[in-house]
């Protein structure tokens, strides 16, 4: 990829793309209030920017209907304070976030039925990767990029392929995806994303200390990580669920065309409609028989 | 068949329900043979034991005209058995031991038989691979059959052409053949002077004596046009391989001084080409076995094949060299990936997610989110009760992290580092205990807080040094 080590400023300069979950349905049911969450995150972003003068931070809001960039430290050079309460950058972030939420609400069409729907993680991941690709191509020198997902909404199964594609392209371009899951159950998507891309996944136990978790685990640059003991996943759940009965299975059948997973053998793939050839399997078994005869 | 009659004792019945011999209890179904005639009438025979039944059934099965295979079928079956050792084993196990009758055994393999039969039909008889050899002695007995004539014509295009031009306008068929064998004899003597003398006397003979170089060359040119242009023809100059050091020959032989050797090589190649080409004209199909008819038929078929070859160009060539075994099944349409509804694909993964209820409507949810933003805007970052890192919470967080790190490192067996466990636990808990005790921790937390405040530039260095001293004491 374009990210040759020689192109980095130094090995400890980071370019962090933070994906902020702004799913209103999750936050209205969460134990941690959104305002508390934001104050933790804002402090954390400030901390990253001050850890190294060359560090950069980009924030992307992962909404319910849309995603958008709400903060970019490369364009936001004003690090002064606004009326003594908070830095200009924090207030501009909040302002953008408010605008984003209004737009996001306008985009929504129907009320969610019962369960909390997922936020558009696949969209924000793609935006983050696009941004990082631009950074790679920006010039001769650039900081080492990484992605941090601050996610609370449950996994959106309909985004599965899009998210997995984003994960694999991140893996290809050597961009680690760190993830901090603040929802109730753990997210299989984020676990796999961090596992595949070599990032860190953590689910904080005590959300009041979120800032500390963020600082201890996610603030350090990629170079320093090699010297630190960071939480490792005890195990990542790689098991898949079958598409026919939605059961989690250890072994199953996979469509050779679309890779749909089934717990039983079917004559036809219910997803892509491929007919699993009878004649071919017959021929194969016949030739197998023939091949085996000399051994017996 | 051992004999024409098999005699076994049996009871004849009209219905199966009839009781057997009175007083005798049957624990098992008695061996019965049920026969149906053309009028759909049933004849039931009850035998004393199963072997009797078997014998009778076999006997009747053999008598039955439907089950008598034709000679061709039998040949096919034998061929299949010879080719497939597994089938042979099965046949031995079932058909020969009498578990299944022959007909039953082959009934299940109709497909196999049909396939074999189809294969057979495709094959056409070819030429004998033996070369034409006429006794080139003084004795002159020639045996000309239509078969031989066809072979002469296809292997010697010059003779074929001469025959077409001279017979029957200039000479009779018999004369032609006499002249042909005379030429053949003269050639066999390898005496070029005699050949020249004879040719001067008889112009027809001269034509027959001439080598068919021009025809071969024109044919070769025609073939060249159909050859894959990527082929390296320089490597083998026509039929002549003598310019290449082969077969252990160290020296390249001079080609000019051995015209006969060359002609023999050409003859052999021509012959093999004719054999490979196969029989384009079926002599047996031609009712008229006269040489004239054969010659004309051959000329016609040559014309056809050449025009066909020209028309098809390279495609005909590629089809010619298509080997059945190497071809993939091309009748299967490529399956298309057509996901109609993405939800079908992904809904399965939703099962893992617990159904979290959301009581708020959309407006309420967005409203509460916006409220919290405006709240943080109004109150600034001091929203959380000062400080952002609560010492007690911080202690819990460190305990949690230490625990998870130590358990996973132990789990992964990467480094059994007892220091990590004891040090982190001891240091952090005691250092934070001290924070609580002397409230200096409150100032320490300003490290983070300072970033958001004006005092960032004048970050009190002495706090850090103090803290470091304390840590040293603890360690």
Automatic annotation (TrEMBL), chain A:
UniProt keyword annotation of Nucleus present: yes
Protein purpose: Component of the general transcription and DNA repair factor IIH (TFIIH) core complex, which is involved in general and transcription-coupled nucleotide excision repair (NER) of damaged DNA and, when complexed to CAK, in RNA transcription by RNA polymerase II. In NER, TFIIH acts by opening DNA around the lesion to allow the excision of the damaged oligonucleotide and its replacement by a new DNA fragment. In transcription, TFIIH has an essential role in transcription initiation.
UniProt-listed Gene3D superfamilies: von Willebrand factor, type A domain
GO biological process: nucleotide-excision repair; regulation of DNA-templated transcription
PANTHER family: GENERAL TRANSCRIPTION FACTOR IIH SUBUNIT 3, TRANSCRIPTION INITIATION FACTOR IIH TFIIH , POLYPEPTIDE 3-RELATED
Entry protein name: General transcription and DNA repair factor IIH subunit TFB4
Assigned keywords, A-Z: DNA damage, DNA repair, Metal-binding, Nucleus, Transcription, Transcription regulation, Zinc, Zinc-finger
Subunit relationships: Component of the 7-subunit TFIIH core complex composed of XPB, XPD, TFB1/GTF2H1, GTF2H2/P44, TFB4/GTF2H3, TFB2/GTF2H4 and TFB5/GTF2H5, which is active in NER. The core complex associates with the 3-subunit CDK-activating kinase (CAK) module composed of CYCH1/cyclin H1, CDKD and MAT1/At4g30820 to form the 10-subunit holoenzyme (holo-TFIIH) active in transcription.
GO MF annotation terms: zinc ion binding
Compartments reported by the entry: Nucleus
Record flagged with keyword ATP-binding: no
Major place of residence: nucleus
Family: Belongs to the TFB4 family.
Cellular component, GO annotation: transcription factor TFIIH core complex; transcription factor TFIIH holo complex
UniProtKB/TrEMBL annotation, chain B:
Domain of life: Eukaryota
InterPro entries attached to this UniProt entry: BSD_dom, BSD_dom_sf, Tfb1/GTF2H1
SUPFAM superfamilies: BSD domain-like
Stretches the record annotates as Disordered: 1-36
Biased composition (Basic residues): 1-14
Cited Pfam families: BSD
One GO cellular component term noted in the UniProt record for this chain: transcription factor TFIIH core complex
Biological process according to GO: DNA-templated transcription; nucleotide-excision repair
Domain BSD: 136-188
Protein name: BSD domain-containing protein
Organism: Corchorus capsularis (Jute)
């Amino acid at each position: 990829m374009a990210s040759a080590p020689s192109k980095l400023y130094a090995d400890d300069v980071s370019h962090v793309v933070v994906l902020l979950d702004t799913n209103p349905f999750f936050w209205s049911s969460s134990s941690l209030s959104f305002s508390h969450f934001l104050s933790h995150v804002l402090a954390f972003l400030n901390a990253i920017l001050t850890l190294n003068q060359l560090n950069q931070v980009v924030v992307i809001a992962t909404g319910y209907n849309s995603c958008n960039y709400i903060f970019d430290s490369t364009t936001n050079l004003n690090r002064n304070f606004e009326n003594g309460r908070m830095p200009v950058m924090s207030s501009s972030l909040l302002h953008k976030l408010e605008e984003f939420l209004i737009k996001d609400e306008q985009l929504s069409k129907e009320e969610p039925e019962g369960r909390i729907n997922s936020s558009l993680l696949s969209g924000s991941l793609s935006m983050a990767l696009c941004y990082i690709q631009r950074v790679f191509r920006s010039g001769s020198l650039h900081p080492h990029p990484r992605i941090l997902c601050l996610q609370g909404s449950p996994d959106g199964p309909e985004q599965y392929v899009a998210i997995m594609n984003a994960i694999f392209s991140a893996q290809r371009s050597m961009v680690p995806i760190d993830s901090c899951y603040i929802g109730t159950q753990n997210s299989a998507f984020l676990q796999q994303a961090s596992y595949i891309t070599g990032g860190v996944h953590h689910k904080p136990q005590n959300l009041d200390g979120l800032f500390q978790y963020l600082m201890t685990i996610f603030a350090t640059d990629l170079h320093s990580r090699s010297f630190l003991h960071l939480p490792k996943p005890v195990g990542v759940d790689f098991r898949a669920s079958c598409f026919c009965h939605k059961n989690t299975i250890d072994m199953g059948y996979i469509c050779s065309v679309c890779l749909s997973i089934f717990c039983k053998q079917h004559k036809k793939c219910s997803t892509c409609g491929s007919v699993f050839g009878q004649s071919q399997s017959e021929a194969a078994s016949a030739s197998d028989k023939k091949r085996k005869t000399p051994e017996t | 068949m051992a004999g024409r009659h098999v005699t076994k004792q049996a009871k004849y019945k009209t219905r199966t329900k009839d009781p057997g011999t009175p007083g005798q209890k049957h624990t098992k179904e008695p061996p019965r043979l049920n026969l149906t005639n053309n009028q759909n009438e049933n004849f039931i025979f009850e035998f004393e034991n199963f072997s009797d039944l078997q014998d009778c059934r076999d006997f009747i099965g053999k008598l039955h005209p439907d089950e008598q295979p034709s000679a061709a079928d039998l040949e096919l079956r034998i061929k299949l058995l010879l080719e497939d050792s597994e089938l042979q084993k099965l046949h031995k196990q079932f058909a020969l031991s009498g578990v299944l009758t022959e007909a039953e055994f082959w009934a299940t393999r109709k497909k196999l038989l049909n396939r074999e039969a189809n294969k057979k039909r495709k094959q056409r008889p070819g030429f004998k691979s033996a070369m034409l050899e006429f006794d080139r002695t003084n004795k002159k007995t020639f045996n000309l059959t239509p078969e031989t004539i066809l072979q002469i014509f296809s292997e010697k295009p010059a003779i074929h052409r001469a025959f077409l031009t001279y017979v029957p306008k200039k000479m009779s068929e018999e004369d032609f053949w006499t002249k042909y064998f005379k030429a053949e004899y003269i050639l066999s003597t390898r005496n070029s002077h005699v050949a020249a003398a004879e040719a001067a006397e008889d112009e027809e003979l001269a034509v027959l004596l001439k080598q068919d170089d021009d025809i071969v060359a024109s044919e070769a040119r025609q073939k060249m046009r159909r050859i894959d242009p990527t082929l390296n023809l320089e490597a083998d100059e026509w039929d002549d391989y003598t310019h290449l050091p082969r077969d252990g020959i160290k020296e390249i032989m001079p080609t000019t001084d051995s015209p006969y050797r060359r002609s023999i090589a050409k003859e052999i190649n021509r012959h093999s080409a004719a054999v490979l080409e196969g029989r384009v004209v079926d002599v047996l199909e031609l009712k008229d076995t006269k040489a004239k008819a054969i010659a004309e038929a051959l000329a016609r078929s040559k014309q056809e094949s050449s025009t066909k070859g020209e028309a098809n160009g390279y495609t005909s060539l590629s089809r010619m060299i298509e080997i059945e075994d190497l071809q993939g099944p091309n009748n299967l349409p490529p399956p298309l990936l057509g996901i109609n509804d993405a939800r079908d694909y992904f809904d399965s993964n939703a099962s893992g997610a617990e159904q979290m209820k959301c009581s708020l409507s959309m407006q309420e949810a967005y409203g509460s989110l916006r409220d919290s933003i405006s709240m943080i805007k109004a109150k600034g970052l001091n929203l959380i009760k000062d400080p952002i890192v609560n010492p007690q919470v911080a202690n819990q967080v460190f305990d949690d992290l230490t625990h998870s790190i130590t358990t996973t490192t132990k789990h992964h067996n990467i480094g059994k580092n007892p220091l990590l466990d004891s040090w982190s636990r001891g240091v952090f808990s005691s250092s934070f205990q001290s924070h609580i005790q002397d409230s200096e921790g409150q100032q320490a937390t300003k490290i983070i807080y300072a970033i958001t405040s004006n005092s960032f530039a004048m970050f009190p260095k002495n706090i850090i040094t103090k803290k470091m001293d304390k840590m040293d004491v603890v360690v």
